[in-house]
Write a structure and sequence with these properties.
67% of the residues lie in helices and 8% in strands. The chain has 142 residues and is mostly helical.
């Protein structure tokens, strides 16, 4: 039996540590905006495709609906989204951005700028890395 690799040579640890570092970088900016990183992800799903069901947001983020629901409720209290029952299926809750939620997208551009600046990578390098990580995620999920 082969011994496990040292942590720094394990891809899972590198991805985990990089994710934590990005979250630490984003946290002060998100704090100023009054949202958490998971709430930012929910907003990102809505910026991509507004007026989604909670289940649709959860699927997009690879989360359970029970995880997304409290995030959406807090975003509603903050005035960034509205929640309504689906007209065709009362069991479904639809989530839509408010004007404040849409405006927040523009304020979040500083996140990507900070990542490029801090990483020392060019935007094409970051995009390439992102494609590689997405391909890995797709392969592992499949």
């Amino acid at each position: 039996m082969t011994a496990p690799l040292p942590l720094d040579r394990q891809l899972c640890f590198s991805l985990y540590a990089a994710s934590l570092a990005i979250n630490r970088l984003y946290k002060p900016m998100l704090d100023r905006l009054g949202i958490t990183y998971p709430q930012f992800l929910v907003l990102g799903a809505l910026w991509d495709d507004d007026d989604r069901t909670v289940g649709g947001i959860a699927a997009r983020l690879s989360l359970e609906s029970s995880t997304v629901t409290p995030l959406v409720k807090r975003l509603e209290v903050a005035g960034f989204v509205t929640r309504t029952r689906d007209a065709h299926d009362e069991r479904q809750v639809r989530v839509a951005l408010t004007d404040s939620g849409r405006a927040l997208q523009e304020e979040c551009t500083c996140l990507a700028d900070s990542l490029v600046e801090r990483s020392g990578l060019s935007m094409p390098d970051i995009q390439r890395l992102n494609r590689d990580v997405q391909a890995l995620r797709t392969a592992l999920a499949g």
